[in-house]
Amino acid sequence: MTALTTLVNHQIRLAARPNGLPTRAVWSFTTEPVTEPEAGGVLVKTLAISLDPAMRGWMNEGKSYIAPVGIGDVMRAGGVGTVLASKNPAFAVGDAVSCGTGVQEYCLVAGDNIKASGLFKIDLRLGTATQWLNVLGMPGMTGYFGLMDVGQPRAGETVVVSGAAGAVGQTVGQIAKIKGCRVVGIAGGPEKCAWVVRELGFDACIDYKNGEVKAGLKEHCPKGVDIYFDNVGGEILDAVLARINRKARIIICGAISQYNNTTPVKGPANYLSLLVNRARMEGIVVFDYADRYHLAVAEMAGYLKDGRMKSREDVIVGLDTFPETLLKLFNGENFGKLVLQIAPS
Amino acid sequence: MTALTTLVNHQIRLAARPNGLPTRAVWSFTTEPVTEPEAGGVLVKTLAISLDPAMRGWMNEGKSYIAPVGIGDVMRAGGVGTVLASKNPAFAVGDAVSCGTGVQEYCLVAGDNIKASGLFKIDLRLGTATQWLNVLGMPGMTGYFGLMDVGQPRAGETVVVSGAAGAVGQTVGQIAKIKGCRVVGIAGGPEKCAWVVRELGFDACIDYKNGEVKAGLKEHCPKGVDIYFDNVGGEILDAVLARINRKARIIICGAISQYNNTTPVKGPANYLSLLVNRARMEGIVVFDYADRYHLAVAEMAGYLKDGRMKSREDVIVGLDTFPETLLKLFNGENFGKLVLQIAPS
Predict the structure, then answer these.
(1) What is the pLDDT of residues B103-159, one digit of tens each?
(2) Which of A104, A205, A281, B134 is the most exposed place for a label (fewest CB within 10 A)?
(3) How far is A248 from chain B (nearest CA, A)?
(4) A86: part of which helix (H) or strand (E)?
(5) Nearest CA of chain A to the CA of B48: how many Å?
């Protein structure tokens, strides 16, 4: 085993707050020596990190559901990795873990920061490391609790999900199918739409890039929309609002169409459909469900095992590609959960 | 008693769909002979009708929570009146009733239309006839069930209500006070604001006409906003969204600021505050609670009797003034529940 003191930790830090899309200029590239953990601490070698639309929000100043990343700080990211050194009895060298690693090769977690860093052991028999960033990780938990707790689907209802080929969307749609719903996805491009229907078993998928969201909703939701899981906001949210049923539930998970706006966010002009239809629009933040993650993981690992749930990760290799890889989320280039692989294994 | 056949029924009908504010040109003025009810039917003499912001929506074509008023039809309105003739054993001549009378002097309700017309006897010991159009009528029911069922207030929470001096707003604020909440109103002009605080007992009232809604919310809601009962939409909704607490509830009852737009409705640009705060925005339509009106009426009549609830009606006399009187709602000129008195008693 390499002596820890010879290792160098390559890191990516937020150098400036972006205006619009986060270009390479907002990042700085730093190195630090790797140090031994102190009593109670753990040193994690990052295998891969999750790239998520929410990252864009963390880069802004101002109040949100989580503090913004400070200028000069290592960029926040959830990751999976391996314990390289441990002075904590709950973790042994070689353990596979999930952790808020940040965008860096090594993450030193202090003993009093174990819980806040989200460090926990993962069971690779339940899913692969990248699945632990996808359906068994934050996106999966977000989809599961957003759909089940906020949406409360009933068999036979029609569920629409945007970003259907993304990490959250693929989870939402597949769970909704398992629960007996009719599921219509919205995704960008014929390849993603075909995959969502053929591989994931959605009943239909509307290609928003061909500009036929309204017509697609009319065609594929003949009984209206009971649940809309919104990852995108903007015009698609308005189009769905125009087709909701009485007592519909709209889960606001994100609004990727608005995150890089340099103009004000576009509010949903059709929001009065909530009144007409006695419907509900409600936000979800996954952290609120942390004490029930283990239940959702167990349920979803079962679906992965029996083949009722599939997952797709879009894995890009190399820490240095982070700035450009992140942008794939915002132009819709990623196909499946976007993962940045940092170490070969 | 006058022979029915000598009576003439003056009516106001919708002649054209308005574009923007409904001017006198959209109405036609007609007369019809009054006829005896047939078996099971009831003839009601209209004493007064309720003028409500919702009327503007009924004048538009297109799907809503209720069918639009047809061109050439007597304008829909809820009213109170007296039974003038009855061939229905449940109603006797002289009974005080509430009824969807429409904007006309006499309303003939057919036997098979009793329920759909909303005809029921009112007890003038519980409240005056105009209170039966206000706190004991549709606005009161809307405020009661919107606040209690959708909002679910808890003692100590902060409740904000717009249109605070209007029919729904005065009910909402007073119930919220009775339930132990801090209540902040939003109304137009110092006179209304002073009345809301001094007479109705709100903790504060923000005058939106002086342009200080944001500063007022900050000052008067130091612990943030837990419930917002929205009657107005537009910029005020956005200002409140910026100050909501975790798990806040926003009740969408109306959007009077948007009803006469000739441009698209302004959607709430700050709607992502729902996400950040895991908050909920939900529509209310009062008809859904019809089987519990009697419970709310009993509760509110108790508050009226013991002085914990006050009501204010702005009564304008004369059927012919209907077109101009209705406009008072949209320029904020009414002070209290707007009522059009049609007969002297």
Answers:
(1) 999 999 999 999 999 999 999 999 999 999 999 999 999 999 999 999 999 999 999
(2) A104
(3) 10
(4) strand A79-86
(5) 27
In a domain, A123, yes or no: yes
List the structure tokens of A175.
């769970």
Question: Closest Cα to residue A50, out of A294, A286, A292?
Answer: A286
**What CATH number is given to the structural domain containing A235?**
3.40.50.720
Question: For tokens 């002086």, what's the residue?
Answer: B210
Q: Is residue B296 domain-resident?
A: no
Which range of residues forms the domain containing residue B59? 4-134+312-341
Q: What is the pLDDT of residues B179-230, one digit of tens each?
A: 999 999 999 999 999 999 999 999 999 999 998 899 999 999 999 999 999 9
**Total domains, chain A:** 2
Domain shared by B95 and B186, yes or no = no
* Strand, helix or coil for residue A43: strand
Cross-chain residue pair A268–B271, CB shorter than 8 Å: yes
Residue in chain B nearest A289 by alpha carbon: B278
The backbone torsions φ and ψ at residue B207, rounded to the nearest 5 degrees and listed phi first, read -85, 105
Residues A226 and A155 reside in one and the same domain = yes
Single pTM value for the model: 0.92
B219 and B160 in a common domain: yes
- In this structure, chain B runs to a length of 345
Beta strands B8-14; B27-33: pairing state: antiparallel
d(CA A220, CA A223): 9
Question: Do the chains contact at A282 and B281, CB–CB below 8 Å?
Answer: yes
The per-residue pLDDT for range A245-286, each reduced to its tens digit, is 999 999 999 988 888 888 888 899 999 999 999 999 999 999
Residue B282 contacts A where some CB pair is shorter than 8 Å: yes
Say yes or no: B271 and B325 in one domain: no
* A85-100 residue pLDDT tens: 999 999 999 999 999 9
Q: At what angle do helices A213-220 and A234-241 cross, to 10 degrees?
A: 40
Three-state DSSP at A256 gives coil
Q: Are residues B272 and B331 in the same domain?
A: no
Q: What is the CATH number of the domain that holds A101?
A: 3.90.180.10
Residue A296 lies in a domain: no
